[in-house]
Amino acid sequence: MDVVLQDGVLCEEEYCYWKQKRTNGKDAGKKQTLGWEYSFYDQGRQKISAQEWYAFSRDYFQPMTERLAVFQWFQTVDTDDNYDAVPITDQELAQLMKKSYQNFGFIRADSSKLSYDDQIQLIAKQKEVWIPWLNGSKQVDIEPESYFFLINDLDHNGRLEVFVSFMGGSGGISENTYYEVDGGNKGLVEITPETEYQTDWLGTEPDQYMVYYTAYDDDYDGGITHYSVGDGTWGGAGNGEYISQDLYLLDGELCVNNFAMKKLEEGKCTYYRLENGIQTRITKKQYRKLQYQHFLKLSENTVEGDGVVFHWFSLPEHLSEKELTETLETAYMNWAYNSDKRY
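Below the sequence we write its predicted structure tokens.
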């Protein structure tokens, strides 16, 4: 829906829509819900595919500048010890209204002068920069089909990123490289993470990550989008560790903050809070709470979003530029659809 406030009138126009319904099956003679089924329609109520639906939505707003905004809602009642509704005071209401105003804001401005389609063409032409066996970074004993990539826009600045990842070995060691369309829209620049830990993009099941938005930050007023990800290293005989990470892309730098760790030694788990390089032992319950409390404590303006799904695509060794462009377009459509549609 296109919503515009103009001259004191709130105008709403429906331009496309989707429906969902439960899909059911039978398990051991009992009816069991298996999931959801989605159907998509254009402005004329004609059924279309998911990709056509997103393309229609994107093209509808194509002449306009895109920015991501966050709306945080507040309740104007409280509850007493018996969980009965209690009106808040005028002073509490004024404080809520002030916080509501402060929390409203745009996450990032679109800083690219190229359309997403043009950026896809640019990324295809720059294949020698980011494809491992074309830029010389591929390990000689790794098959090209073992590398995967995705297209995204983590910081919502309008300039697409290309992530390339490989995971191998008994310990599940990851190797990642990251690129972004440069500010001049002339090529790709490599993004270097600020940590030695490699995020396990391919080792997470499912490939869904929680998202947290900070609409306003004291150090950066453009807003930040945080992703709850992690890095695991596993050995034999029930040994290994998993690092919980707060990942965000800011001004061309991929920032990763390690905030919790789970250790597995001979099948026994221990849990730790990580802060300023110091490990503090915590309980399993505290560890689970920390997975979301870490983000909500970043700022009073941070709000929780929904999960975003990352779809990785394999990189066949021999692809024409046309085939590569089509694969890139599919990868972008999956990112764009799944980052807008919440699960």
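The chain has a mean pLDDT of 75.
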